[in-house]
Each structure stands twice: as structure tokens, then as C-alpha cells.
């Protein structure tokens, strides 16, 4: 059983398109995240939701819109994709009472 | 400010010990983490240490924390080729485990 699963794993798309990445966790955690890892492996948090409420929103273009239909899901929608959006996007989850964040396998997005 | 620094590369021979070093800036960090990322894969939590500890050992892994110097290290005993990966250090500034600050990762190459 995959604890944090995200789809698709690979996505190649043209500039200007709109795409979504989906994430689900079956750990019963109350907090979910989206991280971006760029080509230099730099990892930075984008968003965090706790019980479906947005609690962390870093400086991210408003073309990126997270949506949390329930606390087990956090999807990332990206409008008008740009070349610079090419990266690996990691979904993650944690429980407030615990100390660790669990990551998904990553979604490799390439914008051409 | 918040910053986590690691050397970018480390090369060792199979069977030797590897020591990966990390420095951080936020003295209020409650937990410090080591994550492993294998090529094309997601982030796997290896271990973490609470800030009031000096050392934590888990099988082949030993974490040392020098809180005065804000220095964290990960020692891998009897390094194997399967240990080849990128190792990320992360801190939780202000004890906020939801918003980790990450290093750029150390690429460990294990040579036969």
C-alpha cells in the first residue's frame, strides 16, 4: 500500500496548457503539502493544508492553485504553464502530533 | 535568516564509512532530519534527531548533533553501492515541523 500517492508520475506538456497533479494519502494525516524541486535539486515548500484549510502559502505565482476536497486529498492545478515550471513536484503529508513528513514519489513535469 | 548548508558531493569506497555534514542557522529548530533520495525516486525519511540529543544511532546510521555550532552529521557505516543517493538535511525553524528548511543535498557516490 502506497502511503502518499501522486499521479501522474511523468507529464510532458506544451507551454500555455493547464494541467493538474493529484495526490492522495491513506495515512489518516491531517496536513498535506506540495513541494517543488528544481533542476538543481533545491526543495521548497509551496503550499500546506491542514484539515482542508490553507495554512502555508509561499510566494508562488497565482497560476498555481491547490485544492483540497477532503483531508486525504490535495491536488495541484497549474494554469498557463511556463518553461520555468518544469520541475519535480512532491506531495507530502504529516500528522500534527508527529514529527515526520512523508513524501510521495514525485511528479516529473516537463514543459516544452 | 534561515539557511541549511551541505557540501554537494561525496565519494567513498564500498565498505568505508561515509560522513555527510550539514550546518543550519536557526537555533530554535526542534527537530533535524535526514532524508534520502535515490535517482528518479521520492524522498525517504532516514532518521531525525530531537534538538536536546547529541547522538542517535539506528543500525548503520549515526547522527551527531552539535547544537552549539549548529552542526549536524550523518555517518553511514560500511557504505554499500545501494547507499548511492542524494542525502538532504532539513531543519524545523521555530519548532514548526510543517515548514522544513532544506539543504541542497549531498550526492553520495559509492565506488566498488
3D structure, described in words:
The complex is a heterodimer of chains A (112) and B (112). Helix content of chain A is 0%, strand content 56%. With 112 residues, chain A is mainly β. Chain A is built from no helices and eleven strands. Chain A starts with a strand and ends with a strand. In chain B, the strands form two sheets. In chain B, strands 2, 4, 5, 9, 10 and 11 form a six-stranded mixed sheet that branches. Chain B starts with a strand and ends with a strand. Chain B has strands spanning 4-6, 9-13, 18-24, 31-37, 43-50, 55-58, 61-66, 71-76, 85-91, 101-102, 106-111. The model of chain B has no long low-confidence stretch (mean pLDDT 91). The A-B interface holds A 31, 33, 40-45, 48, 50, 55-56, 90, 92, 94, 99-106 and B 31, 33, 35, 37, 41-45, 48, 50, 86, 88, 97-100, 102, 104-105.
Ordered list of secondary-structure elements with their pairings:
The complex is a heterodimer of chains A (112) and B (112).
Chain A: E1 4-7, E2 10-13, E3 19-25, E4 31-37, E5 43-50, E6 53-57, E7 64-70, E8 73-78, E9 87-94, E10 102-103, E11 107-111
Parallel strand pairs in A: 2-11
Antiparallel strand pairs in A: 1-3, 3-8, 4-5, 4-9, 5-6, 7-8, 9-10, 9-11
Chain B: E1 4-6, E2 9-13, E3 18-24, E4 31-37, E5 43-50, E6 55-58, E7 61-66, E8 71-76, E9 85-91, E10 101-102, E11 106-111
Parallel strand pairs in B: 2-11
Antiparallel strand pairs in B: 1-3, 3-8, 4-5, 4-9, 6-7, 7-8, 9-10, 9-11
Number of strands of chain B: 11
- The fraction of residues in strands of chain A falls at over 45%
**Rg of chain A:** 13 Å
Q: What's the overall average pLDDT of chain B, rounded?
A: 91
Number of helices in the DSSP assignment of chain A? 0
Overall form of chain A: globular
Q: Detail the poorly predicted runs of chain B.
A: none
Structural class of chain B: mainly beta
**Share of residues in helices of chain A:** under 10%
Helix count, DSSP H or I runs of 4 or more residues of chain B: 0
Distance between the termini of chain A: 34 Å
Instruction: Give the assembly state of these chains.
Output: heterodimer
Uncertain ranges of chain A: none
Radius of gyration of chain B: 13 Å
Mean pLDDT of chain A: 91
What does the main sheet of chain A amount to?
7 strands, mixed
Helix content percent band of chain B: under 10%
